[in-house]
Each structure stands twice: as structure tokens, then as C-alpha cells.
Design a protein that fits this description.
The protein has 144 residues and is of the alpha+beta class. Helix content is 39%, strand content 10%. Helix 3 packs antiparallel against helix 5. The longest helix has 15 residues. The radius of gyration is 19 Å and the shape is elongated. The protein starts with 20 loop residues before the first helix and ends in an 8-residue tail after the last strand.
Length: 144
């Protein structure tokens, strides 16, 4: 997966360009008078089966990112809470999980789904609580 906030693709021949975030990022670069523009390697597009199957296509739509996460839940036993924390830290890594918890790093929709599934499996009576939500087309950079 490529980093959306640092890449773009200027491919006017692409039939899906208006629906692709990378095209919109290229348009922003043009508006900023960037000296150079980038594009997805045409060989990779060809190997994937053409523009309709572009491996870098990223749908241009607003996504709901969470910022911050509650870490202690009174409804959970200490053992269950510790087990959830351990699984989250194993999945995301200790430092990333700490940044996500504090709100320094946003929590993507896919990561929110994983966290909800984990709670449903380990503590079905408790929903994870995210502290705030933001809408972005691409994942915003980390704070702090």
C-alpha cells in the first residue's frame, strides 16, 4: 500500500481518474505549481490488467477516522481488559497503539473495525469508545 498523503498520479488517460484520490492529489500539486508530478508505473498497471485494475487505485471519498480511544472500561474485568490490551498491542505494536490511544495517530475505518471485532469476541457486552471523529480523503499525518 502506498502512502496517499505523499503520492499522486497524473494519468489523464485513466478512465477512473475522477474517482481516484491519487488523481485529486495530482490536481492539488498542479494548483500549487509543483515542478514535478508523479504517476503510477504503467508496467504495474499493465500487469494488473489495465487501468480498471490499477493496483494504486484508492477511491476518492471521505472516510471517518477516529482520534483517541478510551483505554479503561469499568464494565470489564481486569483480566479481560488486560487480554484486550495485549491483543491490540500485539496487532498494532505498543508504540502505535499508544499513539492511537492518545489521539496522536488517527484510527482508520479498517482499524476501527478490527478493534470492534476484537471487543465483540472478547467482551460482547462492551463497545470500544473512540474519543472523536474526523473526516478525511486520506489519512492525516501524525500529530506531535
Amino acid at each position: 500500500m502506498i502512502s496517499m498523503e505523499q503520492n499522486s498520479c497524473y494519468a489523464p488517460q485513466c478512465p477512473r481518474r475522477e474517482q481516484c484520490t491519487l488523481w485529486h492529489m495530482a490536481q492539488q500539486e498542479i494548483d500549487r505549481d509543483a515542478m514535478l508530478l508523479s504517476l503510477v508505473n504503467p508496467r504495474l498497471i499493465e500487469r494488473a490488467g489495465g487501468y480498471e485494475h490499477c493496483p494504486a487505485f484508492y477511491e476518492h471519498k471521505l472516510r471517518r477516522y477516529a482520534r483517541g480511544m478510551r483505554w479503561r472500561y469499568g464494565a470489564l474485568t481486569g483480566d479481560t481488559q488486560d487480554a484486550i490490551h495485549e491483543r491490540l498491542e500485539r496487532h498494532f505494536g505498543r508504540s502505535l497503539m499508544a499513539r492511537m490511544r492518545r489521539g496522536d495517530e488517527v484510527i482508520s475505518p479498517d482499524d476501527q473495525a478490527y478493534i470492534r471485532e476484537l471487543f465483540a469476541e472478547m467482551a460482547p457486552e462492551v463497545e470500544p469508545e473512540f474519543l472523536a471523529y474526523e473526516e478525511h480523503y486520506v489519512k492525516p499525518p501524525r500529530r506531535g
